[in-house]
Amino acid sequence: MSKLLTVFGATGNQGGALLNYVLQHPKLSEVYKLRGVTRDVTKESAVAFTKRGVEMGDMDDVESLKRILAGSYAVFSMTQCTYSPPLPRQEVIILAASCTCNSFADRSTETVWEKMSFESEVAQGKNIADASVAAGATLIIWSSLPNVTEMTGGKLSNVHHFDSKAKVEAYIRTLSIKSVFYMPAFFMQTIRDNFKPRRDNEGILRFSLGWPSDTPVPVIDVSDTGRYIAPVLLSAAEGSPEKYHHKSFSCATAYYTADDLIAEWKKVTGYDIRYVPLDAVSETTVLTETPNSTTGLTSYMQQVMKESKGLITEYGFYGPTGRSDVQWALEQMELVGEKPTTWEEFVRANEPWFEEA
Q: How far is the C-alpha of 293 from the C-alpha of 98, rounded, in Å?
């Protein structure tokens, strides 16, 4: 008898990748029937999944959560931080480059930011978890991130796009349901869509992120989401959903510095690229309530940027055990015959990078 896997964020980077993986996997596609949940069931990608046999549901219909989750054996759940009011695209790029925030990977024109709705994101995550338990689901896989406030002893308390997910994770750990925590690193897609090198007025290709060029950051091709989660789904399919109960998967191909990324770009494309660290907010920047006249960023945005940079440079994306945690997750992938996409492979698969060159 098939098991129902309900996937939230079905038309986004993570959920869509998981659905595609299961649909193409010879064993998982036989074991799991799929239901996708999204904010817009009329979206082209949602319609495409429907044609491939995926039942689609409306994520924003809070009253229908129990109906959406009815009959689910396993649930992949995630939330996306929300922002207001709207910001011009350039300010979004400046902000994202210093925040390691993958929410921008799906946004192509404008986004919104002023104060992250921490409370609403946590509430939504808890509601999904509660509904999963009420529906009798056996397993929930939550897309999480480290609790930066706890990791830094309160020194960095404004990295809300990490802490909100960690808050939900802590809640899920108290519930009577098997749970696993998928923690994706900085998306390669975010680099491709928002930060690929551009030519300056002198014709030089420049690449910018919000930290020094020798700072290592874990990077993931988010299309590999299914590969990372495969060990969990396969063990559950074989009747052992408890195998990874309460385990966290720190998911990254490897740690890369900006210098490493540039070296691979040059290897594949042949172009020289210069790294220019983005420093829209320095340690001496005076924070003001009104938007900065140069960057358009308010004091709240600037504070988030400063603390996000501090996380990366002082503590690391995953904290002090990050490298060993990433290695463990990679070892679980290898046990089921999977391996991650490297940055070089991603660069080759996404050419051309520099049409204007």
A: 18
Distance CA(54)–CA(7), nearest Å, equals 10
Give yes or no for residue 9 having a pLDDT over 60: yes
DSSP symbol at 12: S
> At residue 302, does pLDDT exceed 60?
yes
Of 226, 204, 151, whose CA–CA distance to 354 is shortest? 204
Of 84-93, 106-115, 229-238, 247-256, give the lowest mean pLDDT range. Answer: 106-115
**241 backbone dihedrals φ, ψ, rounded to 5°:** -65, -15
Give yes or no for a cis peptide into 352 (omega within 30° of 0): yes
CA 333 to chain centre: 18
pLDDT at 180: 98
User: What is the residue type of 175?
Assistant: L
Residue 28 pLDDT = 98
Between CA 147 and CA 162 the distance in angstroms is: 6
Distance CA 181, CA 269 (A): 36
